[in-house]
């Protein structure tokens, strides 16, 4: 069976057995917060459990590396919508140690793309049309700096309500231990 077939088969009994009942919650987060973190597999459960959050407690926004790549991209949009439409009153930005985006080799990624059939010409066209493919794919070297940079983007965003605290954390994906990068209560206005 394929993964998709397994999903659909499992889902039939999940619904039939009313397993969904244990996950019932509202669309607004009980702890009135939104967490932005990395899509790393190790954080799937650990990334909320190590912070003491359960189902329904928070909004979670994820991407590769927990990087806000653009002030008007989908991440910033999600954070703003969480605040203005979905009941979040605090933002937590959490990077993690040993992040795949911290060590990503852009040239190797581009080589893999080419091996999978993406043409060099396509990369050239993108670069000529103003999309810096290297910048688009690049990671970061220091997760603590990256978290702080994200916080600065949020605080400086013209649509951001500066009375909202933005906290910065770095989690160890092996132990769940947190390092505090920024206490948002100290800079809220
Ligand atoms: Zn990561």
TrEMBL record:
This is carbonic anhydrase. PANTHER family: CARBON DISULFIDE HYDROLASE (PTHR43175:SF3), CARBONIC ANHYDRASE (PTHR43175). One of its GO terms (molecular function) is carbonate dehydratase activity. Binds 1 zinc ion per subunit. Pfam families: Pro_CA (PF00484). Keywords: Metal-binding, Zinc. InterPro entries: Carbonic_anhydrase, Carbonic_anhydrase_sf. It is an enzyme of class 4 (lyase). Belongs to the beta-class carbonic anhydrase family. It comes from Staphylococcus argensis. Zn(2+) binds at residues 38, 40, 96, 99. The keyword Metal-binding applies. Its EC number is 4.2.1.1. Its cofactor is Zn(2+). It catalyses: hydrogencarbonate + H(+) = CO2 + H2O.
